[in-house]
Amino acid sequence: MGSDDLFKKRRENRKQRKYEYKIPKVNSYLIVTEGERTEPLYFKGMQKLIKEKVGGIVDIIEQPVIDIYGEGCSTARLIEVTDQIIKDAKIMYQNVWVVFDKDDFEDFNQAIKDGVNRGYNIAWSNQSFEYWLYLHFNYSDSALHRHQWSVKLDELFKKYNLGDGTYQKNYEDIYNMVDMYNGVDVAIKHAKRRMAEFEKGGYQPSEYDPGTMVHKLVEELKKYLE
Question: H-type helices in the chain, by residue range?
Answer without folding.
Answer: 2-20, 38-54, 75-88, 108-117, 129-134, 146-159, 174-178, 183-199, 214-222
